[in-house]
Design the sequence.
């Protein structure tokens, strides 16, 4: 719930334009969040790196849009360092702007696509043992540049923007909303 409120406030239109941009002095440091015990907790900046590990043996390719596009489904592990440290195992579904024969013959990022990863995270968030549900979704441009959102929830929530290279590594930067840490699932 608090994550949805934060996202709503980040997209609040004209009022949001009056706020200083994220990353400037006072923007993240002065934000507060009501935690589960009713106490005010600071919302802090979340930063780190992300690496994608694909399991090629799990890849399924299905033609879509009359065969002009291809949908890949593949098992993936996201490795996170920084504010969140650990691994998220799950599945990515990508809709690639190329026929399956072409998409399968070329490395990730050759063609543009949209993708969504869903899975479970195990590790630490802000130094505390945590388990969280993860959504990582975005767009890959032809050539491999990835722009995406990373969202961890169930316990402390983290909402971050990701800049990465298709099938490889990238960085994330966003906000951490303190909450109840759940160790294990």
Sequence:
């Amino acid at each position: 719930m608090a994550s949805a409120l934060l996202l709503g406030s980040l997209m609040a239109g004209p009022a949001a334009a009056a706020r200083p941009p994220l990353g400037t002095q006072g923007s993240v440091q002065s934000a507060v969040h009501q935690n589960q015990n009713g106490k005010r907790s600071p919302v802090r900046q979340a930063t780190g790196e992300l690496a994608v590990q694909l399991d090629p043996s799990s890849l399924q390719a299905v033609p879509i849009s009359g065969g002009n596009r291809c949908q890949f489904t593949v098992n993936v592990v996201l490795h996170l360092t920084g504010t969140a440290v650990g691994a998220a195992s799950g599945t990515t579904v990508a809709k690639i702007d190329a026929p399956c024969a072409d998409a399968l013959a070329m490395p990730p990022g050759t063609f543009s696509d949209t993708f969504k990863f869903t899975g479970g995270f195990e590790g630490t968030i802000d130094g505390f043992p945590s388990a969280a549900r993860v959504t990582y979704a975005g767009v890959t441009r032809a050539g491999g540049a990835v722009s995406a959102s990373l969202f961890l929830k169930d316990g402390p929530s983290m909402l971050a923007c990701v800049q990465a290279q298709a099938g490889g590594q990238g960085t994330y930067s966003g906000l951490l909303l303190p909450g109840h840490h759940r160790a294990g699932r």
Q: What stands out?
A: The domain at 44-177 is CATH 2.40.350.10 (AOC barrel-like).
